[in-house]
Write a structure and sequence with these properties.
The complex is a heterodimer of chains A (376) and B (409). Chain A is of the alpha/beta class. In chain A, 66% of the residues lie in helices and 7% in strands. Chain A starts with a helix and ends with a helix. Chain B has 2 domains: 239 residues; 145 residues, 3-Layer(aba) Sandwich (D-Maltodextrin-Binding Protein, domain 2). In chain B, 68% of the residues lie in helices and 6% in strands. Chain B is built from 15 helices and 5 strands. Chain B has a 4-stranded mixed sheet, sandwiched between helices. In chain B, strand 1, helix 2 and strand 2 form a beta-alpha-beta unit. Chain B is elongated. The chains are: A alpha/beta (376), B alpha/beta (409). The interface between A and B is large, with 135 and 140 residues.
């Protein structure tokens, strides 16, 4: 046990001999801090240029104010003229322009009178796509409640011929408006879907991939030492133990930097549960990298394989998007299991199984290799 | 001396390229697969536009079930969302397999809660995502919009009903008037998006999604190549620079020779697999027009000058193999993220967008896009030259210091 700690400390000393390693570890949480700071600025998945044909129209002003303050997925720029709004779209500075017609309130009231929906706003786009269809719903969603109110007014005043003032009508209507959302979001483990930043969300996945890459780097380091003859005096099983020590140290250091990064990003759920899952993930990454290192065995092969691994990990793990069609391949990737385990004990259990199975496979590979070269 | 050193480097790198070239080809094929997946199943793809939602609850032939069928047939949201009713265990399996994006669980008393205006029962939507992805965000927004529609419609109907009651209208007349209003409102809700009119201006100054991601994925490979060629740098004889210096070969000459050979390796391992990939993609007839190889080649050449110079500098300056790999990952994935390789640059706030454009990844993207799209890339060209030259100068400086201090690579 004591020898193990000494070896651990010596490996740490070797790694930290070069200041660049410490700088890289510190860079991760610092970069996350910078991202958190800068991502708090105004932004949106779509940039919308807003313009009201009649700026003095109180409804148009109300709608614009609501859109600017409430729509967190849209970044809105209020323009002074229709031409400015159009130029922003054609020049690529905005994804769409929303132009509210003049006499907005009168037009909606007139449409409600005829119970027929007519266009009262124009959406100018370069090309129509998914996000624009969604944004069309958003704009209609801002205008439609006013239309509904006018329909209600028409029904009461003209169909039912009940004589009321505007204030009385408005008061009865607003008495029935309920605050809050009729929907509530949950993850698979029952935890509520909280507010979070779409720009910061992928960073957790990127950091998880970074951790796995650090495991590969440890394997590469070890394989390079082996190719240079640093372990000529050791039998193969002891060389594998060296690889294990190096892996443990590198992943331990990387895990601390990762946890610090997650704390800064405020993406952790329960800190204790997250720490346990992180430990499982580190073990899974260790066996994953050690197995591949054992199979490839040369610096040039390991190095050549790493970019392909990065692409596989980024594509098939829920970092930027969540594909679930290739589960047989995906369950081999530690990042897939780990990122899905954040809100699912099923995947946490899968990581435990993965760790044990992976350790067994690596042990078998080591034993087979040692048997092929006895006496070393 | 220079020629002999160059020859030695060529021979050494040629041996390593026997491994690097086939792996680069494999890497390009992986990238092609990624591109195809991203374009067909990513959050912004047209094919991905319909989000499947599993609906769980005792809806049966109730108004809610009728409402869901009506939404599926008549509402504009049918182009974006696909509802499918099923039991909870099937829904959870479908969610785990990715067949649906979310589960909507409708409690038994939801309909009564809405009809009687209590609104105390809520529909729970369960997402299978591990975090709030863009898909979850869109569903969240969709749920909020639907909620506002329901609440506004309720306020209109119940406000009217309150007045009917206060004016002593009840029984058959009350029901007839209420039903008439429900039907009218249902029809109006279905056509709500007609309040807006879409006008497509056609394309100008913008770049379509397909070519954007083709360029970014290509550049992502270029920035990752430093890892593929780790054998070139990590297996160097550590004493060689000092030995060559003693034989009269300066640090600058050493660096330039090694850089030239590395650049040739990069060109070989990028252009050949790229040509193969474009041929494969064209033969697959995906209905997408890819840039021709002869258009990409002159555009990529300066970019590869930049990436190879940067990678050379990283390997020269960072002695720890672990740290150099992690830095390469920061360079490719981290900076690539900020420069819009994964999410469109428009997603980022102005400051991050500006930073992203100045990074090597941003400069490379601006240049590549500019040349392929026939837009003047002068600023980007200057950026490429500055980064490349600076990297080489710093590499020479570090090599001199290493030799002078008696250190090894």
């Amino acid at each position: 046990m004591r020898r193990g700690w000494i070896r651990f400390a010596l490996t740490e000393k070797r790694l930290f001999r070069t200041p660049s390693y410490l700088l890289v570890l510190l860079a991760l949480p610092l970069i996350m801090l910078g991202m958190r700071f800068f991502s708090s600025e105004e932004k949106g998945m779509l940039t919308i240029a807003l313009y009201a044909e009649e700026p003095a129209d109180d409804l148009a002003q109300e709608v614009i104010e609501k859109i600017v303050s409430e729509e967190e997925l849209l970044y809105c720029i209020v323009c002074d003229s229709r031409e400015e709004a159009e130029e922003m779209v054609t020049g690529g500075k905005a994804d769409a322009a929303w132009i509210l017609d003049a006499d907005l309130r009168e037009k909606i009231a007139s449409a409600a009178e005829g119970r027929a929906i007519l266009p009262v706003a124009r959406i100018l786009v370069r090309e129509d796509n998914v996000l624009h269809q969604f944004s069309r719903e958003v704009l209609a969603g801002q205008l439609f409640p006013e239309f509904l109110y006018d329909v209600y007014r028409e029904v009461v005043l003209h169909d039912l011929e009940i004589d009321l003032t505007e204030e009385e009508l408005r008061s009865i209507y607003e008495r029935r408006l309920v605050d809050g959302n009729l929907f509530e979001g949950e993850y698979l483990d029952g935890e509520a879907v909280g507010g979070s930043d779409y720009l910061l969300n992928p960073l957790r996945g990127l950091m998880a991939v970074w951790l796995v890459i650090s495991g590969f780097a440890a394997v590469l380091y070890h394989v390079r030492d082996e190719q240079r003859g640093a372990f000529e005096h050791l039998p193969y099983l002891k060389r594998d133990a060296q690889a294990l020590y190096l892996m443990a140290v590198v992943l331990f250091n990387g895990g601390i930097a990762y946890y610090a990064g997650c704390l800064i990003l405020q993406v952790l759920t329960d800190p204790f549960r997250e720490a346990l899952r992180l430990v499982l993930f580190l073990f899974c990454s260790a066996v994953f990298c050690l197995i591949l290192g054992k199979l490839l065995r040369k610096t040039q092969y390991v190095g050549a394989m790493i970019p392909a691994m990065i692409i596989l990990l980024l594509t098939f793990s829920p970092v930027f998007f969540d594909i679930k069609d290739f589960w047989m391949l995906q369950t081999l990737l530690p990042t897939y299991l780990y990122l899905n385990s954040v809100h699912s004990s099923f995947y946490a259990a899968a990581m435990a199984v993965y760790m044990l199975a992976g350790a067994a496979v690596w042990g078998i590979l080591c034993a087979v290799h040692a048997r092929r070269f006895p006496g070393r | 001396m220079i020629r002999a050193y160059l020859n030695a480097q060529f021979k050494r790198t040629a041996k390593l390229s026997a491994v690097v070239l086939p792996v680069s080809l494999l890497l390009f094929l992986c990238l092609g697969l990624v591109a195809a997946l991203f374009l067909t199943r990513g959050p912004f793809s047209e094919n991905r536009s319909r989000y499947g939602i599993a609906v769980v609850g005792n809806i049966g032939d109730s108004y809610l079930g009728f409402g869901i069928k009506a939404v599926q047939s008549l509402d504009d949201s049918r182009f974006v969302v696909d509802f499918d009713t099923m039991p909870m265990d099937e829904a959870e399996k479908a969610l785990r397999r990715g067949e649906v994006a979310a589960i909507f669980v409708i409690p038994d008393d939801f309909l009564d809660s809405v009809l009687y205006g209590r609104n105390d029962a809520k529909i729970t939507y369960i997402t299978g995502d591990s975090q709030k992805t863009i898909g979850t965000l869109l569903i969240d927004q969709f749920a909020r919009l639907a909620s506002e529609l329901i609440i506004s419609s309720q306020a209109a109907v119940y406000g009217m009903q309150d007045l009917l009651i206060s004016h002593h209208t009840d029984g058959t007349a009350f029901r007839e008037i209420s039903d008439k209003m429900y039907l009218e409102l249902a029809g109006l809700v279905m056509t709500r998006t007609a309040l807006t009119e879409v006008e497509e201006l056609g394309f100008s100054d913008g770049e379509d999604q397909v070519s954007w991601y083709f360029h970014t994925i290509l550049l992502f490979f270029c920035f990752l190549f430093g890892m593929s060629s780790a054998g070139v740098f990590l297996l160097r004889n550590p004493s060689l620079p000092r030995w060559m210096r003693m034989r009269g070969l300066s640090a600058a000459a050493q660096v330039l020779c090694e850089y030239l050979v590395y650049l040739l390796l990069t060109l070989l391992c990028t252009m050949i697999p790229l040509w193969v990939l474009i041929r494969i993609l064209e033969n697959l007839k995906l209905g997408i027009v890819f840039p021709a190889f002869y258009e990409l080649f002159p555009a990529l050449l300066p970019v590869l000058l930049l990436t190879s110079a940067l990678q050379f500098f990283l390997y020269e300056s960072v002695k720890s193999p672990v740290a150099v790999f992690l830095l390469q990952f920061f360079l490719a994935a981290g900076m690539g993220y900020l420069s819009g390789y994964f999410y469109p640059p428009g997603f980022f706030p102005a400051t991050l967008r500006f930073i992203g454009q100045l990074l090597p990844t941003g400069v490379a993207l601006s240049y590549l896009r500019g040349v392929v799209e026939d837009l003047p890339p002068a600023g980007a060209a200057v950026g490429i030259i500055v980064y490349a030259v600076l990297s080489i100068i710093l590499s020479v400086h570090i090599r001199r210091r290493t030799i002078a201090m008696g250190g090894a690579l």
